[in-house]
Write a structure and sequence with these properties.
binds magnesium ion, 8-stranded mixed β-sheet, binds phosphoenolpyruvate, Glucose Oxidase, domain 1, globular
């Protein structure tokens, strides 16, 4: 039997599963037999014990994990939350029930905010569980102990669990909830963990079941045959060999150079990306500087961060994206309007233009950082819909001293007018995540329409092809920086459609490098034509794979 989910990366794992223990049941809503003051002491002790435990685990983990765990520990002692628990206790509730209700209310508020904030809601569920387990004197549900390697199955993972995974023992991860942009998926990509998220059918798996976790095909194969297992083990060995191969530039078999670049969310990942062979940065997402802030950081503070990253890539190309706030990345100081369809609202360049001071400051900080370092800095604007917006951004960036300015192709309108857009931009970079969302009219954050979020769809590929053709005609570089570039076979098709560079999570570089080496530019074009001729995403993928296997 096969269980469908959303594969993260290209890995394969074979092993027996262990489930994360089920969460504590919801505490009964009954009046406490204790006095409110006594319950209040119990709740306070449990909250501070959980905060202290997270702090200790954070210190043991160090690095980024420590930041995640300390942020969670702070949430446990948030004054607004404690006040809410106290108010509920004064109405006679038990500490367990009051904690449960207060965390649930806090979580619903975050959910209501949508996007990035909603993704943090899982952290609150985890905290609530830990506090209730502490009150019950039970062990918190967490990663099971094992001496043998195993595939972990969980509803979802909280940051506290993910950062402490022992990657020598955890062969892979299957979650029954969560989507491709959830915290778990992001961490799985970062740690190169073989993972499938959103596999609702995984709830039927029991401890000890043997499975093949095939992230490349987005399926979990249960009770696999011996043939299927040995084929999977061969793929695992081949992938390990690719990862161990010496890193070098992205080259097609005929020697055509397709630079392979890294997508980075902050400067911390730069050294690892360079070690994995990134020839530069194709997408530096700058949101991290803004998302937790209550006002925009100063030019000086931004400049420090940009310089830190540019120094890691001296002499290499680094494409920085201007702040892309709104929709899945809400930012109150830029846009606090209550929008019914935020993905179609004031996001990306639209909101930056409405607060031009913030855009000018960011471009000034980038120009200063460029002047102080030796990288080849390019800047681009997200969510551009018109030729006029392109001209606005490119002219502003040039006037502030930035040499190379372009736009992201994320909205079908600019792909359809790529010739006119590229006439006034230095380059374009195709964001296939948003381009797919807008072409298929399917919210990329919504699990119920996740199956539409497939960049193999020929309509998306046709838009990529139109952009590639315009780039070739005008001699302008066309990058691809959405998740599509990390799919080894699709990467070949994208090159065949005219992409001149590909940018992806650093963990995908080895697979894509190896795949490109298997095809000439002419063959990539033939595969692109086959994918374009299909009726839908699945048939495009299947027809291309069948043709590729004959080359
Ligand atoms: C994209 O939309 O493809 C992209 C790279 O940007 P983000 O995923 O950050 O929206
Ligand atoms: Mg985007």
């Amino acid at each position: 039997m096969e269980i469908q989910g959303i594969g993260i990366g290209q890995g394969v794992a074979v092993g027996r599963i262990l489930r994360m223990p089920d969460p504590q049941p919801e505490p009964a809503d009954r009046l406490s037999l204790r006095q409110p003051a006594e319950e209040s002491v119990r709740a306070a002790q449990a909250l501070s014990a959980v905060a202290a435990e997270l702090g200790v685990r954070g210190q043991a983990a160090g690095g980024a994990a420590q930041d995640v765990l300390e942020a969670q520990a702070m949430m446990a002692e948030d004054p607004a939350l404690v006040a809410d628990i106290t108010a509920r206790l004064s109405r006679g509730k038990t500490a367990e029930r009051a904690t449960f209700e207060a965390f649930a209310a806090f979580r619903d508020t975050l959910h209501g905010l949508g996007g990035y904030m909603a993704e943090r809601a899982a952290d609150l569920d985890d905290l609530s569980q830990r506090v209730i387990a502490h009150l019950a004197g039970a062990a918190p549900s967490g990663v099971p102990e094992s001496r043998e390697p195993f595939i972990l199955v969980a509803r979802d993972l909280a940051p506290a669990d993910t950062v402490l995974l022992n990657l020598d023992l955890v062969l892979g991860l299957i979650t029954s909830s969560g989507g491709p942009t959830s915290h778990t998926a992001i961490l799985a990509r970062e740690k190169s963990l073989v993972a499938i998220v959103g596999a609702a059918g995984a709830t039927s798996l029991v401890d000890g079941d043997e499975v093949i976790l095939d992230a490349a095909r987005s399926v979990v194969v249960t009770t696999p045959s011996d043939e299927a297992k040995s084929a999977a083990l061969t793929r695992i060995a081949e992938r390990a060999a690719r990862a161990a191969a010496p890193v070098g530039p992205g080259l097609l078999s005929d020697g055509t150079h397709i630079p392979l670049l890294a997508n980075l969310g902050n400067a911390d990942g730069a050294a690892k990306a360079a070690a994995l062979g990134a020839e530069g940065v194709g997408l530096f997402r700058t949101e991290f500087l803004f998302l937790d802030a209550t006002s925009a950081p100063s030019v000086g503070a931004q400049q420090v961060e940009y310089e830190r990253m540019l120094r890691e890539f001296a002499g290499k190309k680094v494409v920085v994206r201007a702040l892309d706030a709104g929709a899945d990345k809400p930012l109150a100081f830029l846009n606090d309007a209550d929008e019914e369809n935020p993905a179609l609202g004031m996001r990306g360049l639209r909101s930056l233009r409405a607060a031009e001071g913030i855009l000018r400051d960011q471009l000034t900080a980038l120009a200063n950082a460029d002047a102080a370092t030796d990288a080849d800095l390019w800047v681009m604007a997200p969510m551009v819909a018109t030729v006029e917006e392109t001209r606005y951004f490119v002219d502003l960036a040039h006037s502030l001293g930035l040499k190379t300015a372009g736009i992201m192709v994320e909205i079908p309108a600019v792909a359809l007018l790529a010739d006119r857009v590229l006439a006034c931009a230095d380059f374009a970079s195709i964001g296939t995540n948003d381009l797919t969302q807008y072409t298929l009219a399917a919210d990329r954050m919504l699990g119920s329409v996740a199956s539409y979020q497939d960049p193999w769809h020929p309509a998306v590929l046709r838009l990529v092809g139109a952009t590639g053709a315009a780039g070739a005609a005008l001699g302008k570089p066309i990058g691809v920086c959405g998740e599509a570039a990390a799919d080894p076979l699709l990467a070949v098709v994208l090159v065949g459609l005219g992409a001149t560079s590909l940018s992806m999570s650093a963990s995908a570089l080895a697979d894509v490098r190896s795949s490109l080496a298997g095809y000439s530019l002419e063959q990539a074009r033939q595969l692109a034509a086959i994918a374009l001729a299909a009726d839908g995403a699945a048939s495009a993928r299947a027809a291309t794979a069948a043709a590729a296997s004959t080359f």
